[in-house]
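[09:14] KT: can someone run the structure on this one? pasting the chain below
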Amino acid sequence: MQSRSSTSADAQTTHINCTFCQIDSIANYILEETAHFLIVADHAPLVEGHLLIIPRQHYACYGAVPAELDDELFTIKQEVRLFFAQYYALPVHWEHGIFRQTVFHAHLHCFPFGEMGYTPQRQHHKVYSQTDIRAWYNKNGHYFYMEDSTQALLFAPDMDDYIYIIKDVLGAGVAARNKYATPLRSPQQRQSEGKPLIASLAANWQAFRDQQTRAH
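[09:31] RB: done, structure tokens below
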């Protein structure tokens, strides 16, 4: 594994070859922008409600995102939790942490899977704050990460553990919320089938934000 002595080496303002750095390429999927983050509908959703929290600045993963952004990230996650609770089910957060990434820019998946009821059966590390993720990344490098409303777990990058979580844990969340029994459909198939899901998500998000605005 590759160790990290400092997060600064992983931070760039933008990266010319990064899809998430080229805002125009994802503009149609952006639900909301904050000072340092984008909330974005996944272009190939596994289920309706599947969205991403993406830092504007280019970081390799959330283990490289600096501590000064933690409060803003926490606020966004709370907003997503309220939104999901109103329209879908409580969120499960998932991050590849570079391991098996397809876009090499930090992004946190948010799935409306509700309570996972997951009893850890694989080697894992409990996470209590973003500081724990940074500490792991600085010392050990790659990881993958899963969080629901009851626990947050970080895993070393082992393929057997990764496949188990993808198929047996997250896959169960997908199967429970649509007609597909597995999340392993191709991205092309999910993108084609996902257009009405994205439209519904965007409409619900706008309604949610309108309610928030009226409440304040």
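[09:33] KT: thanks! The helical segments are 23-26, 70-87, 130-140, 159-177, 187-193, 195-215.
[09:34] RB: yep, looked fine to me
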